[in-house]
Amino acid sequence: MKDREQGSGLIEMALTLPIVLLVSVVIIQFGVAAFAGAAAEAAARQGARVGSVAQVNPAGYAVAEAQRVAVTSFAAGQPAVVALAPGGVVGSELTIRVTYQVPNFMSFLGSLFAGLPTGPIP
């Protein structure tokens, strides 16, 4: 009986290891995407906060501050910061957009499953 069960552990591991690795990669991918989203939101918020109190060139100060916060938050890559509504007058709207390309750790699955993104995730 022992001889028949000797290889069963190896077979079970061979069947479950790819699934465990896939689930781990998916969890890491979603974690990185969630972190990038939160960091981009924080950078835009801080940039808008600085721009809202600037007396001269609020859009310039807002973009510079958002860029500074975004660069320190993201480990790799270069975030893009744009002032959509430049403000400039007291009470006017100041909108900052921070975008970042999240690295795609699941690109190797693109050859296995059609429809999965293979490049960076915007």
3D structure, described in words:
The chain is mainly alpha-helical. The protein has one domain. The protein is 54% helix and 11% strand. It is built from three helices and two strands. A two-stranded antiparallel sheet has the order 1-2. A hairpin with a 7-residue loop joins β1 and β2. The longest helix has 46 residues, at 8-53. The radius of gyration is 23 Å and the shape is rod-shaped. The model has no long low-confidence stretch (mean pLDDT 81).
List the helices and strands and how they pair.
Elements: H1 2-5, H2 8-53, H3 58-73, E1 80-86, E2 94-99
Antiparallel strand pairs: 1-2
Helix pairs in contact: 2-3
Shape: rod-shaped
Q: Report low-confidence residues grouped into runs of 5 or more.
A: none
N/C terminus separation: 55 Å
The main β sheet shows up as: 2 strands, antiparallel
> How many domains, in number, for the residues?
1
Helix content: 40-55%
**Number of strand segments:** 2
Radius of gyration: 23 Å
Compressed to H and E, one letter per element, the order equals: HHHEE
Short structural description:
The chain has 122 residues and is mainly α. It is built from 3 helices and 2 strands; from the N terminus they run H-H-H-E-E.
What are the main properties of this structure?
rod-shaped, 122 residues, mainly alpha
